[in-house]
Specification:
The chain is α+β, with helices and mostly antiparallel strands. It has 3 helices and 6 strands, in the order ββββββααα. α1 crosses α2 (119-128). Bound molecules: zinc ion (2 copies).
């Protein structure tokens, strides 16, 4: 995996949420959210039939722990297939909501972290630092003295 920001291959798994892995770059601290391949951390799948397709069969593998399924990839109906239940649309919808909620929560933190580790964020943090404030004060003081010496009545406009 390559870092999107610095393009180095220095990515490691930083932490895990219910449905996502969060990776971080050792070189530049960039963070990235990747959804896990499976439906959840503890998959337990059974074969279910979607009754909306009656009289035909429409079979999915649905997880009884999270409700997740790949609806776009129905299974083939064969004689020896064991249909255990009907497709549960309620748990399926809950599963989808849980994934987007999970992502929403992490996304805010990751966005903030990525901003703080970006050159722009570091610059803004520097502007808020005591070190910068001291430097700025001295600098402005120096300019004022200089300006006052040249033309004390002229207002001075300082542009960053
Ligand atoms: Zn990086
Ligand atoms: Zn699951």
């Amino acid at each position: 995996m390559t870092c999107r920001r610095c393009e180095k291959q220095t990515i490691y798994k930083y932490y895990e949420s219910d449905f996502h892995n969060i990776y971080k770059c050792k070189s530049c601290d960039y963070e990235e959210i990747i959804k896990i391949d499976d439906c959840c951390r503890n998959p337990n799948k059974i074969i279910v039939n979607d009754p909306n397709f009656f009289p035909n069969f429409r079979l999915y593998e649905q997880c009884i722990n999270c409700g997740g399924t790949k609806r776009n990839f129905p299974l083939k109906h064969t004689k020896d297939i064991e249909i255990r239940d009907e497709f549960n649309v309620d748990t399926f919808n809950t599963w989808r909501k849980n994934i987007s909620f999970d992502k929403k929560i992490i996304y805010e933190y990751v966005q903030e972290a990525n901003y703080l580790s970006s050159p722009r964020g570091k610059y803004h943090a520097y502007l808020n630092s005591d070190e910068w404030k001291k430097k700025e004060k001295l600098f402005l003081l120096g300019i004022n003295i200089n300006v006052n010496n040249v033309n004390p009545k002229q207002p001075f406009t300082f542009i960053i």
